[in-house]
Amino acid sequence: MSKKNPHRIDLSQRLFIELGTSILIETHGKGNPLSGKLVGMKVGDYLIVDISEINSDNISLSKQDPVLVKYVNLEDIFNFSSMVLRVLTQPDSLVFLQYPDMVESGNIRSHKRVDCFLPIRAKTGDFHAPGVAVNISARGCLCMVDHSHLWKDINTKDIELLFSYGDLETLSIIGEIRTSQIQGSKIKLSIKFNKINTFSQSIISTLVPALRL
Questions:
Q1: Claim: this prediction has a pTM higher than 0.70
Q2: Element (H, E) at 25
Q3: What is residue 102's predicted lDDT score, i.e. its pLDDT?
């Protein structure tokens, strides 16, 4: 993720983040990233992230562990370095993180995204779900997909998107789920494509004429 144009967040103001926002906590050499939701904060002091949906056996955080925290706001990825202040396991699994003194913005729109409405099928593992790509670029897309309890701990996992074109043809594009956020009966997925070939680019350009690849 690009770290161009970092900007400081004035501690006299709240972070650009709302309660319920999906959070990704990346540890340093202590296993896979942990996903959760922001459930509270004390400005200038700490943030509280609920990671109750994660199997307790997969939680490897300890007090004073350094972490990198990522979240999405208005389709821009923000990240900041922090430290674990406390980990609770009862009655819910909660992580208290040190409030950041600097937040970096790495715009996921390094390639211009174009609004669209493309029906898709999303596949990760053996699970399929229908959805819609609501914007797209040469590097990725934002999708709204039917939510299921099977969409758990999916950040950083590979995903296959199936786009229909022609009469019976289907274009398959593989990518990585960068962030996810539940919105009612849907889940919003921000996806970064793996490298796509010229043929796939031509199909996408045909489906979305406003997109210039």
A1: no
A2: strand 22-27
A3: 84
Answer whether 22-106 and 114-207 agree in fold.
no
Residues 115, 86 contacting (CB under 8 angstroms):
no
Confidence at residue 144, expressed as pLDDT on a 0 to 100 scale: 92
Give the separation between CA 27 and CA 102, rounded to whole angstroms: 18
CB 26 within 8 A of CB 33: yes
Check: CB of residue 31 under 8 Å from CB of residue 58.
Answer: yes
Structure confidence by residue, pLDDT tens digits, 42-74: 888 999 999 887 766 667 788 899 999 988 776
143: β partners: 133, 189
22-106: CATH topology: Pnp Oxidase; Chain A (2.30.110)
Tokens of 92: 């819910």
Which top CATH class is 114-207?
mainly beta
Is residue 206 within a helix (H) or strand (E), and if so which, with residue range? helix 198-207
What is the residue type of 178? Answer: R
Enumerate the domain spans of the chain. 22-106, 114-207
CA 83 to chain centre: 21
Residue 192 bridge partners (DSSP): 140, 176
68, containing H or E segment: strand 66-73
- Beta-bridge partner residues of 37: 22, 50
